[in-house]
Automatic annotation (TrEMBL):
SUPFAM superfamilies: Thioesterase/thiol ester dehydrase-isomerase (SSF54637)
Entries under CDD domains matching the protein: PaaI_thioesterase (cd03443)
Organism of derivation: Palleronia pelagia
Keywords: Hydrolase
NCBIfam families referenced in this protein's UniProt entry, alphabetically: unchar_dom_1
InterPro entries from the UniProt entry: HotDog_dom_sf, PAAI_dom, Thioestr_dom
Gene3D superfamilies xrefs: Hotdog Thioesterase (3.10.129.10)
The keyword Hydrolase appears for this protein: yes
One Gene Ontology term of the molecular function aspect: acyl-CoA hydrolase activity
Domain called Thioesterase: residue spans: 49-125
Keyword Flavoprotein in record: no
Protein's recorded name: Uncharacterized domain 1-containing protein
Length: 140
């Protein structure tokens, strides 16, 4: 499915609709195959031991697929997560941003299924893998 919202449109949408998180996430690339989002890791994202917390990585996966869906469908603010399974594969590198790479596997009328790989910046080994399903509200 062709892209209907580019990086600038998605960034503006995130700022307008979700200002509470928009400063944490930077949309780096949107193509028909892949949506890449960066999480600027800060002190508040760390757990004891200096690693990035699981909830932070979940948030990156969730935002990544949400933006990938919006890129294809346009501004559907009420799309919601209905399922998420996440595997934590290795400890993220300390002091580095996290990068998510999201692929939409199925884009249906009601459900969207996607896969997200999360990496520490500069490392090509994923630190987490998530599979998410979103529900799309009926169009008016």
């Amino acid at each position: 499915m062709p892209i209907v919202m580019d990086v600038d449109a998605l960034t503006e949408f995130l700022r307008r609709e979700f200002p509470q998180v928009s400063d944490d996430f930077v949309i780096e690339e949107v193509t028909e195959e892949l949506t890449t989002v960066r999480l600027a890791v800060g002190e508040r994202h760390l757990r004891p031991g200096g690693t990035v917390s699981g909830p932070t990585m979940f948030a990156l996966a969730d935002v990544g697929i949400y933006l990938a869906i919006l890129a294809r469908l346009g501004p559907v603010a009420l799309a919601v997560t209905t399922n998420c399974s996440i595997d934590f594969l290795r400890k993220p590198a300390s002091g580095r941003d996290l990068i998510s790479k999201t692929r939409i596997l199925k884009l249906g009328r009601v459900l969207v299924v996607g896969d997200v790989l999360i990496y520490s910046e500069g490392d090509d080994r994923p630190v987490a893998r998530a599979s998410l399903t979103y529900s799309i509200p009926p169009r008016a």
